């Protein structure tokens, strides 16, 4: 369980309460998707799963497929969640992306990997950072 403090980010507010970590992650994904859509991206899939794992968000930015990993953290000393996206995680994202492309019969296209980190401090508004083209 995670205690979530008051905060807003991208028009999504959270009241002070105790929520399961899974709900915190879902809230962070909602905030990230709202941000991506404000940036003009069109979301194609959320929480897409296969035997290799899960893609948080798959979207299109003009003619580029964007695979976005969303990381959410809570607390007074929360590190930047983007640091949790390691080279091993990026390798798995590439494998998952290949599976997504195959599943939806998408031929060759430009692919970009992004990370959106959402940090919700115990007090004050949440902060969002969008890292484009993480390799």
UniProtKB/TrEMBL annotation:
GO terms for molecular function: endonuclease activity. Gene3D superfamilies: 3.40.1350.10. The keyword Hydrolase applies. InterPro entries: Restrct_endonuc-II-like, tRNA_endonuc-like_dom_sf, UPF0102_YraN-like. Keywords: Endonuclease, Hydrolase, Nuclease. NCBIfam families: PRK12497.3-3. Belongs to the UPF0102 family. This is UPF0102 protein G443_000797. It comes from Actinoalloteichus caeruleus DSM 43889. The lineage of its organism: Bacteria, Bacillati, Actinomycetota, Actinomycetes, Pseudonocardiales.
